[in-house]
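Subject: two folds for Thursday's group meeting

Dear M.,

Sorry for the delay on this. The cluster queue was jammed most of the week, so I only got both jobs back this morning. I'm pasting them in the order they finished. Each block is the input sequence followed by the predicted structure tokens. Could you check whether the formatting survives your parser before we put anything on slides? The first protein is the one we discussed after the seminar.
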Amino acid sequence: MENGNSNNNHTINGNYETAGKVITCKAAVAYGPGQPLVVEEILVDPPKAMEVRLRILFTSICHTDLSAWQGENEAQRVFPRILGHEASGLIESVGEGVTDLKPGDHVVPIFNGECGKCAYCKSDKTNLCERFRVNPFKSVMTNDGKTRFSTKEGGKPIYHFLNTSTFSEYTVLDSGCVVKIDSQAPLKKMTLLSCGVSTGLGAVWNTADVQAGATIAVFGLGAVGLAVVEGARARGATKIIGVDINPEKRTKGEAIGITDFINPNDVDKPVHLVIREMTGGGVHYSFECAGNLDVLREAFLSTHDGWGMTVVLGIHPSPRLLPLHPMELFDGRRIVGSVFGDFKGKTQLPAFAKQCMSGEVKLDEFITHELPFNKINEAFQLLIDGKSLRCLLHL
């Protein structure tokens, strides 16, 4: 690495010779939909006003990275691009005007930022932000509409992804998309707070506000779905039903906290009828984590009429609309979406990190594989094959 910090023991003294300079480092660049990522040297510019440059130490792969890499949505096909949005690391340098972060701070990036000043950030009814809300189509920095990445040969622009772009040894983010956490927190595990665990668990704690004694059904037992399970377990739910067509998910689900497992391929009736029979009319809450509209309808119908709530967490790339008739809502069932678990990232994530440190939330089960960064394509294949929840990449 040229002009970079090659310190591998993850200790930082806060005095960077690289501040204000272009850094040459390695990144995994996506050049086209479905093409293997190319780990190569790139150039990373210094942060501009209200931006920060991070040294990424750990990153992992989420299904959102996978769908973007595969080009599932034509409007997202912006290449070359640096994907990735789950990570942890250290502040290398800060741009003009940044006062809440400094070099050496332990941080996690967040794709759904918080400026703290707009009407949305000041409202207690949303965790969206006028400037830094999640936007999968955004590929440049907010400041000037340009990128901070470029190719080493020729200096051609490389585009950003989800306000973060963590598949790089160094990355530049808006300061509103960076959260400072306790320096004693294990950065390796804190990577999970950037997306999957916060999204799933927050949907239980914040969006649905599940209470002790409740019954829930989780459709799709990937990392987000299992984070829902963990959140429900921590809240004292009495019945946690996991639904997945992958039979191997049963073991992982039971390790985290499901009480029952349903494989739709093994039952002779719609899943919602099975769940209604198991629960005396339906669960209090269902969580759709599969990104499939047919699954969403089953999740909706699996809740109890009169008071059931369905929380949508899956990403739906299809142009199809909701498979519901408006009159079905008159039975008292509700449906709501949840972004980043309704956490306000910069405001609430530091406290959540401490809850994880104290053992109130268990994170170990979510990291199923670990690989060096240069094996990122193998990590993608593990996710495609359904073998990993989160494969942690060490940079």
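Second protein, same layout:
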Amino acid sequence: MITELGSAFVLGLAGAGHCVGMCGGIAAALQLGGNSGKGITLAYHGGRIASYTALGAALGFAASSIDIAAWTISLRYLAGALLIAMGLYIADWWRGLQWLERGGAIVWRPVQRWSSVLLPPRHWYQAAGLGLCWGLMPCGLIYSSLAWAATAQDARLSALMMLFFGLGTLPAMLATSFGAGAVQGLLRRRGLKLLLGVLLMASGFWTIYMAVAHANHTNHGGSGHQQQQQVDDARHNHH
């Protein structure tokens, strides 16, 4: 569990530049109200992270409803592939995850129309509602993170993974909201993005390696069981 939660946090932290580009405008606008805007800003980010967590729990529960060994192993392969893809995305070496954003735009349009009535948020509950809607925006980083969290096949763990992903996005988003340019600059540094991207890819390759090892163990175990069954049948026929 620690590995998954650590990877989720690193993923959120590594996506700082992308998060600022996608959500930075609304995050900065929420703070225009001065001191009174701080509560609204925090409510917005709370709602945003809550939406990630709830979606993670739902997808983790759905994935856990299928109890088949081949399904579980396939999800582990998918988890590793997604981590590698997200590492490449963070490092700006491959932008293939953008196709998720194009597909997600279909879901986002009706949500965007509904959430527009909450702009500008004047009360904390309006900001929290806006944050809940923002979790569905067409963002390849969010969608791929949700797909990866679902591979845990456990509602609680998937929810925690998305919670830690959301917490990882907070430094960049709060820096944008409260005008901390130094923090934004640090999180956008090319060297840091490359380091975090490589760490994600390493985690992905390790996940695939463990999936292969588990699959081989399962196959060998299954072969041994079949051989034992054949021996038992032969003994029974002999008698």
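Two things I noticed about the second structure. Residues 222-231, 234-239 have pLDDT under 50 and may be disordered. DSSP finds ten helices and no strands in the chain.

Cheers,
T.
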